[in-house]
Amino acid sequence: MDIKEQIIELLNEKFQEEDFDDCFVVEVNHNNSKLEAFVDSDSSMTFKKCQRLSRYLEHHIEENKWMGEKYTLEVSSPGIGRPLQFKRQYPKNIGRKMEVKTSEGQKFTGTLVRLDDDAIFLEEKTRVKEGKKKVSKVLTHEINFDNIEKAVVKISFNK
After folding, report:
1. pTM, entire model
2. What does the pLDDT look like over 101-118, one tens digit per residue?
């Protein structure tokens, strides 16, 4: 078992504890002397949770001498700008603006308004020409999870 698999296994063990039972591994990257673990949760991934997970992993890495003397360990949430990878990441992003690219190459940008077992629903405000006037319309796009190639939460500073 390589170090990535061992880290994932350790994290999954830790996620059995009450304080971490809504956490899950998004991605683990390892190259030479750097190890990155991206972890998310169904509620909120706090700095404190990341810090506790980092110390837990550090203890095992050093005890088992997996990384040598000098290494960098980063444990964090995936953060805005990183693509969502699991269905369970969508509910806490309801109300946020997203950019979604489908497997057919279509791109949609809008607010995630709801989801069901099979799809997400993005609301897009747009201006369309009706006669001689332009009017605002709200379009709702239903996008099946199976058709999502990439979905990224977009940062919005508008109120």
Report:
1. 0.82
2. 999 999 999 999 999 999
